[in-house]
From TrEMBL:
Biological classification of the source: Bacteria, Pseudomonadati, Pseudomonadota, Gammaproteobacteria, Thiotrichales
Protein name: ABC transporter related protein
SUPFAM superfamilies: P-loop containing nucleoside triphosphate hydrolases
Record organism: uncultured Thiotrichaceae bacterium
UniProt-listed CDD domains: ABC_MJ0796_LolCDE_FtsE (cd03255)
One CC-aspect GO term: plasma membrane
UniProt keywords, alphabetically: ATP-binding, Nucleotide-binding, Transport
Length: 206
């Protein structure tokens, strides 16, 4: 997972697909962009700010305010309901709460677009299927209109129809807000939906 990237520029509002072989460092790069990991040297500028110069709490605040992150492992809180998990970013970020407006209504709309039944709203996420949990993680990332959406294999547990619905929702939400998307997937069909494909092997000088 060694990375040596002299320069990688993604414009605000751009939708980019990051492609690379297994073990090439895709997830490591996403974790750096999310401020979870830091490079040994260099800078990472997001929204005109170098997150490498921020303290850990500042990076956490920046991520909460400006990023929707969909992790491979979902990172849902098992003791919370489906609805409570989706609303989490609004509790940690004033900005996301204000952008969401009527929070519960916004959350229910996102979940409905992802074909999750309202009957499940109060159900603990541990009682949901893997595919349902993945869609909850997606809705949580989208709520509050973050400027940057980082997605690491967000469709791996979805069937074809739900995957396509998710992509439509992701692109419509991102375009409405002018959000940047950086998306990683092993599914080659998904790459065809993106106007830009970044080959990690071409930007990583190791």
């Amino acid at each position: 997972d060694t990375l040596n990237i002299p320069e990688l520029i993604v414009q605000q509002g751009e939708h980019a697909f990051l492609r690379g072989s297994s073990g090439s460092g895709k997830t490591t790069l996403l974790n750096m962009l999310a401020g979870i990991l830091l490079p040994e040297q260099g800078e990472i500028r997001l929204l005109e700010q170098d997150i490498c110069t921020m303290r850990a709490k500042q990076r956490d605040r920046f991520r909460a305010d400006h990023m929707g992150v969909i992790f491979q492992q979902f990172n849902l809180l098992p003791y919370l309901s489906m609805l409570e998990n989706v609303l989490l970013p609004c509790h940690f970020s004033d900005r996301r709460r204000q952008q969401a407006g009527a929070m519960q209504e916004n959350a229910e709309q996102l979940l409905e677009h992802l074909k999750l039944d309202k009957k499940l709203l109060q159900r603990p996420v541990t009682e949901l299927s893997v595919g349902q949990q993945q869609r909850v993680a997606v809705a949580r990332a989208l709520i509050g209109k973050p400027e940057i959406i980082i997605a690491d294999e967000p469709t791996s547990a979805l069937d074809t129809d739900t995957r396509n619905d998710f992509l439509k929702l992701l692109f419509s939400e991102a375009e409405a807000q002018g959000s940047t998307i950086l998306f990683v997937s092993h599914d080659p069909h998904i790459a065809t939906h993106f106007p830009r494909i970044i080959e990690l092997a071409e930007v990583n000088r190791i």
